[in-house]
From TrEMBL:
It comes from Acinetobacter courvalinii. InterPro entries: J_dom. Pfam families: Phage-tail_3. This is Tip attachment protein J domain-containing protein. It comes from the Bacteria. Residues 17-86 form the Tip attachment protein J domain.
Length: 111
């Protein structure tokens, strides 16, 4: 989904056939659903979006990962949003255990 002046638009990324490495992907382009106003609860908007306040968001995130280059020892990487910290103060999230990350750069990017 991508925002547009009229609302949200749905964009498909797998709608064309492609061949590579001896295999071919052919997408199924048959519509699965055809929704009308009758499919939604009456007197309600069909789609509602609720956003949390900026002051409730974490601006300091920590990820615990296993570092392949340090004998698979557990390490922590972090990311901070300095602009939000200056506006609303530091809001630190508890470290998230993400032991499926083994590369420091990828763990930092995920944070």
């Amino acid at each position: 989904m991508v925002p547009s002046p009229d609302g949200l638009n749905i964009r498909s990324y797998g709608d064309s056939a492609i061949t590579g490495n001896g295999a071919t992907f052919t997408p199924d382009l048959t519509p699965v659903y055809h929704l009308t106003d009758d499919d939604f609860i009456s007197d309600d908007e069909p789609v509602r979006v609720r956003r949390s306040r900026d002051t409730d968001a974490y601006n300091h995130v920590q990820i615990e990962y296993i570092n392949r280059y340090n004998q698979y020892n557990t390490e922590t990487t972090e990311a901070k949003d300095q602009a939000k910290i200056e506006m609303f103060g530091l809001s630190t999230q508890d470290p998230v255990e993400s032991h499926y990350f083994c590369e420091p750069k990828i763990a930092s990017h995920a944070a």
